[in-house]
Design brief:
The complex is a heterodimer of chains A (about 290) and B (about 140). Chain A is mainly beta. Chain A contains one helix and 23 strands. With about 140 residues, chain B is mostly beta strands. Chain B is built from no helices and ten strands. Chain B has strands spanning about 10, 25, 35-45, 50-55, 65-70, 75-80, 95, 105, 110-115, 120-135. Classes of the chains: A mainly beta (about 290), B mainly beta (about 140). Chains A and B meet through strand 2, strand 3, strand 6, strand 8 and strand 9 of A and strand 3, strand 5, strand 6 and strand 10 of B.
């Protein structure tokens, strides 16, 4: 019979014969993580991105244990990955996983980075000249059109836009063929609510043209590009971030019986330029998690 | 007056008289993180369900612990985690609960709960480390 020799180094003030494993600086009966590498990498998240990742290679040939830290460029602290909140949505979070060839780290956004979604506050439709609905298209070849207003639009003339889109939630539709329309901004600094028809208000020079089929389903979103109109309004001399912005949608000789309407759920989605850099430190150990 | 002996093993090319802790493979002035227990095992989670895994350690104190879970084939994620979008979030995915009532370490156990939002049963691997030092 042979005895296995044991090497122990007790902490200062602790007995070498202690039975408390916390009393030792080193104890040969317990393994320790063996250092393999310490690397840094980073990802740049641009406006509109939802996920970016980077991989640190390790060449170990198996899946190793590791620790990762991250730091956002808009913060001054290092945080341990993962960093998952509880009780709120997973709006954005860092993550890290190991494979047989590397450790991949990344950062995810549920919505595109720097996207702001503003709920509609006013509708208008010429079909009934009321402010309960928006509609555009033709019925029996009679054109109908409308307008939207969004309050508290946080953008300045100095901002650079990646995109600006009205996402019009379809709550009614009928007919077949193409719906054609042009969308203008209301060329005002802080357009007022639609207590009366806004259709005669001054329009921006910028507009977008749409030709699309009748939406397939109730609940679909009709996407309307308003980037140039938003920029023109935000560039007005007396525009202030947080003011109200409106849009007029003119029918543009579409098919005779094709239309859609909206009475709820429409939003103005702005993606403003900007970047966020996430710096990672990845410490890889030689200890094997799996093959 | 007695002197406390010090045991030091310097890393290659580093001086044994260095004052930089990073220059040593072992230095008796600084405790090491010793692995008390580790293992790899599987856990099965029903479609749309969850499974709690309890690993008994009985150390009598709350130890430092690490957990890795294979939330996607070949991908061992670190800690209390949700996977990236390429691995299914938010459409259908597996994740380790961030709820402190469901994932925690105490004086007796390491406990974690895995959720499965897929429409099929999933079996995944996990690997844990329990260290011989106080976590709190």
């Amino acid at each position: 019979m042979t005895n296995t020799p044991i090497v122990k180094i007790a902490k200062s003030g602790k007995s070498i014969s202690s039975n408390d494993i916390r009393d030792f600086v080193f104890d040969s009966r317990y393994s320790m993580f063996k250092y393999h590498s310490n690397s840094t990498t980073s990802v740049v998240i641009s406006a509109g991105d939802t996920e970016k990742s980077s991989t640190v290679s390790h060449s170990l040939g198996y899946i190793p244990a590791f620790i990762a830290y991250y730091k956002r460029s808009d913060e001054s602290v290092e945080r341990l990955v993962p960093d998952i909140p509880y009780g709120v949505d997973f709006d954005f979070y860092p993550w890290a996983y190991a494979t047989t060839t590397g450790v991949t780290v990344g950062y995810s956004y549920a919505d595109p980075y720097n996207k702001t979604q503003i709920a509609v506050t006013d509708y208008w439709r010429t079909y009934a000249n009321d402010n309960n609905y928006f509609s555009v298209g033709r019925i029996s070849n009679n054109p109908f059109e409308g307008a939207f207003r969004f309050s508290s639009v946080a953008i300045t003339g100095a901002d650079s836009l990646v995109s600006a889109k009205i996402q019009s939630n379809v709550t009614g539709k009928d007919g077949s063929g193409d719906i054609k329309f042009k969308t203008y901004g209301i060329d005002e600094d802080n357009t007022s609510s639609f207590g009366s028809s806004p259709m005669g208000r001054t329009k921006t020079t910028a507009y977008s043209s749409n030709t699309r089929s009748v939406p397939t389903n109730i609940g679909d979103d009709v996407e309307i590009d308003v980037k140039d109109a938003v920029l023109e309004i935000a560039d007005r001399g007396s525009w202030s971030s947080g003011n109200a912005m409106g849009f007029i949608i003119n029918e543009d000789s579409g098919d005779s019986d094709a239309w859609f309407s909206s009475t709820s759920g429409t939003t103005l989605d702005l993606v403003i330029s900007g970047t966020l850099t996430i710096s990672f430190r990845v410490i890889i150990f030689k200890d094997k998690l799996s093959t | 007056m007695t002197n406390t002996p010090i045991v030091k093993i310097a890393l290659p090319t580093k001086s044994i008289t260095s004052n930089e802790p990073r220059d040593f493979a072992l230095h008796s002035s600084y405790s090491t993180i010793r692995i008390f227990a580790e293992d790899e095992d599987d856990v099965t989670i029903s479609a749309g369900g969850s499974t709690t895994v309890t690993i008994n350690h009985d150390l009598g104190f709350v130890p430092i612990s690490m957990l890795f879970t294979k939330l996607s084939p070949g991908h061992f994620y670190q800690g209390v985690c949700i996977p990236n979008q390429a691995d299914g979030f938010p459409t259908a995915y597996l994740y380790v609960s961030p709820n402190s009532a469901e994932t925690y370490v105490d004086e007796d156990d390491l406990v974690f709960k895995v959720y499965n939002t897929f429409g099929t049963e999933k079996t995944i691997s996990y690997h844990y480390y329990i260290f011989a030092d106080d976590g709190v």
